[in-house]
Hints:
Blueprint: H1 3-41, H2 49-62
Amino acid sequence: MNKQVQIFLVVLAGWMNRKQQKVIEYLLEENQILKQQFESTGKKLRLDNHQRRNLANRGKAMG
C-alpha cells in the first residue's frame, strides 16, 4: 500500500473516532439528564417488553 493511501486511512480513522466520541459524550450527557429527571420525580422507569429486549441485546453485545 502506498504512503498516500496509508495517510488517508489514518486521517479517516481519526475523523471517525472524533465523531464517535462526540456521539458518546452526547449520549452520556443525555443519560445523566434523564437520570436526574427520574430521581427528582421519584417514579420508577417503566419499560415495555420491546424496550427491555432492546436494552438487553445491546447490553449483551457490550459484554
